[in-house]
Every structure is written in structure tokens, then in C-alpha cells.
Write the C-alpha cells for this entry.
Amino acid sequence: MKTGIPSETDRLKKVIVHTPGREVSLVNPNLKEELLFDDIIFENDAREEHIDMLKIFEVAMPDDGEVIEVLDLARECFGSDEARREFIELMIKEMPEENIRSIEDDLVKLTPEELLTFTVEGTLPGKQSFNLHPAPNLLFTRDLAAVAGNSIILSRAAKAARSREFLMMKIIVKYHNLFDELGDNAIYISKDQSIEGGDVLVASDRLVLIGMSERTSFSGLMDVAEQLLSRGMEHVLAVDIPKQRSSMHLDTIFTFADENECVVFPPAIEEQSDNVVHLFKGGQGVMVKKKKSLKVSLEEITGKPFTFIKCGGDDTISQYREQWTDGANVFALAPGVIVGYERNTRTFEAMADHGYTHMDQFAFIEEFSRKPFDPAKEGKIAISFQGHELCRGRGGARCMTLPVLRTKQP
């Protein structure tokens, strides 16, 4: 099996990432807001922190697990003349404001590597007069797509700054053999809608959550929900969340740590009511039912009790501070095995109170580099890693990962 995500917490086997490169050093501070950044990132430290995160993945994943660089996938696809030409046509069609038609002949002549550089850094060899802004958000591969069961949702960017990345992912899914098994199960939405992968969480092979955020439109959410339900998914929970920068996606305020344990930002999750809609198939098509809360909805649909672990613990100021630095944006490597930024100390304390053993990246790597990691035997573990530079981009471990294959534990 090449692809498939039965849930957020099944054991990770394949994940797509992007280690930050020169594109983050090309961000002009005067344009940082336009490029969706609150601060500028120091490339060298960000790269080291990201590579350290990937070392955790490599130790925690099974021997046949794969950490895949998204640029390697794009490079292989751009080796095809057909894929290169289609990508160029997509940019011309989808990004009319950039006037890419004026350099079409130059783009067609580029090597795969040069086209990749143009896509990520915005520079064109020999054309100093034509430059696009860099694409520093490629670091957050989560938003490019979302695999739910045996379907893949192709994201459509809400902000122009991310258009090239999303178009590149569309080409990868169409042309790379990694996605052969998805066949006709790719879900697309129209140009007038938007949805981003950070708003899609796979609770189980029966249930998907979709956030209606500042990046995912109502029409985009409904279109994707209808297509998921027509492809075998039984339930979709639409979660209305605050339309603001600090909670740009559902996964910035809510993530799964275990099958029925979640890390949540209380003010936006536990303290909200009547903000969830249950979508499911009925005799008359898609049925809609308003629900009291996310926790109640999850428990009713799954028939299991859920535990919500507070990002930042019980202190309100700590909750806001640690949500700001992605305390609620944890990433599961296996059931009950998560990674998150070290700086969110109160969140890790709260997880310890719920039975998680806290290990820093160095202790985890040292211990399990010497012996195989068996999550079923080791129990619940919360792994912290340093991300002081990475967190300036306002995205945590889940934001920086696009899982394409998870498997049930034996």
C-alpha cells in the first residue's frame, strides 16, 4: 500500500515534508504580512530544528517508513515535459495577476531544477526584471492536501501567496506514482472556493472533521464534505472556528494525540457551543444536524468517551501564550505518541497529568536508536523538540507534515 490514512493517530509510515531553504531568507520584512508571516525566520537555525524533528520521525517510524521531501516529488514530476507544461499552464490560468504569460517561452525552456527554483524562490535565470515573491510557506506541507481514508483532498489556497505551492501539489498527485493507488479518489473544488489541509482532521475511517476557518470557505467545506460522503465516509463534522490569524486552521486549536484524546485550546473549543454541524448521508441526500459541541459530537458518533487535554494547562494566560506558539498543534507518530515544540511547557505538563511520559528529542533519539521503537509496548509518550525559530512561522509539528500513509497496529 502506497497511501491511505485511516485516522490521525495510526502509526505513521509515509510523510511528506519540506525542510526550509533559501526561500525563507528571501522574505523581505516589509512584505512579511503579505507572505503570511508574523516575523522573519533565520534559515540556518530553522533548518537544523526541522532536521532534528525529522530525526525523531525516522527513529519512531517502522523500518520501511519514509520521510519524503516534497521538492524531490516535484523534481521527479518536472522531469516529464507534459507535467512541466501543464504546471506552467496552471500558473498562467490560476495566477493572472502575476502576468506569467509574458515569460511562458522562458519557462518552457527551463530545466526541471530551474523550474523548481522558480516555483519556490520566485527567481528566473537571466530575467532579473521578472521575479515573483518567494514561497516560504512551503514549510507547512500540511496545507497542500489531505489524505482521508483512500481519498485525497487537493487544497485550494485562500491566499494568493500560496498559489504556486498548491498548484505544484496538484501536479505531484496527478503525475507521481506515489499517488497511483488513489486513482479516481482525488477531490477537487472550484476556483471560487477554498480549503486547506490544516482544516481537515481524520478522526477515524468513518469520521472526518473540517474546520470552517479564515482559510476554508463554507462552500469549499460543503463541496468536500459531499464528495467524502459519496466516497464512503459516513460522517463529517463541520466546526466553525474564529476567523482570525491566531486560529487560521482547525489544527491550530485542536489535534488528536490518541484515538480518543485531543489537545485543545479551551477558549476556542471547550468554551464554544452550537458551533458544530453534523453532515451525513440520508435518504434525501446529505443530511444536516446542528450539534451542541465538538466533544459531544465526537462521543455521540463514535460511542466512546473523549478526553480533552488543555493546551497551556488550566491557566488562561498560559493557554493563550502556548496556543500562540502552537501548543495545540501536536502531531501523532502512533497512538498516544506525539511531538510538539519544547517551549510549550505547560502543555507537556498537562499531558503528563494524563499519563504521557515526557521525553525531549535527545533522550528519545538516544534510547530508540539503540533498540526498535514499539509504540504498543512503550505506552504514551509526548516528545518535545526545539523549535524557537520554526515557531516564528506560526505552525507546529502537524502543520509541517503531510502524512500519506498510516497503518493500524497489529
Notes: Residues 43-60 form the longest helix (18 residues).
